[in-house]
Amino acid sequence: MTPLSTQARDAALAGLDGWAFDEARNALYRRLRFPSCTEAVGFMAGIAVAADAADHHPEWSNVHDRVDIWLTTHDADGVSERDVALAGTINAVLAGRS
Ligand code: HBI
User: Fold this and answer.
1) Separation of 56 CA from ligand 1 center, angstroms?
2) Pocket flag, ligand 1, residue 3 (CB < 6 Å)
3) Which of 32, 68, 77, 91 is 20 to 30 Å from 43 at the Cα level?
4) Which reaction does it catalyse (predicted)?
5) Is 5 exposed, middle or buried (0-12, 13-18, 19+ CB in 10 A)?
């Protein structure tokens, strides 16, 4: 799998609310906060189902009400369309919560 060019990645990011490029991890990055730890972990459980279905998985960490997410494609050694798609899924799930 091939990574997106810098130009294509920036164009994708322009359409992805809340996401940035993390140079150090060569990944799309977003930090989220939830009303509680339970809701943060519940969100992660929902995304895990979608990630398994797509066979594409986030790198993430949870501390209390905070979830940090990095999306990168190991097979491409960088950000690919699969990361853009998963970021879009995550944003859609978040939009559905409010
Ligand atoms: N998740 N983020 C990410 N990147 C991958 O390259 C990846 C994955 N999940 C599953 C997966 N690749 C598999 O297709 C391979 O590990 C076999």
Assistant:
1) 5
2) no
3) 77
4) (4aS,6R)-4a-hydroxy-L-erythro-5,6,7,8-tetrahydrobiopterin = (6R)-L-erythro-6,7-dihydrobiopterin + H2O
5) exposed
Report the alpha-carbon distance of residue 62 to residue 32 in Å, rounded: 10
pTM of the model: 0.95
Choose which residue among 2, 28, 55 to substitute to test ligand 1 binding: the one with the highest number of ligand atoms within 8 A of its C-beta: 55
Tens-binned pLDDT, residue by residue, of the chain (98 aa): 899 999 999 999 999 999 999 999 999 999 999 999 999 999 999 999 999 999 999 999 999 999 999 999 999 999 999 999 999 999 999 999 75
Lookup result for tokens 């905070």: 66
- Residue whose token pair is 């969100």: 43
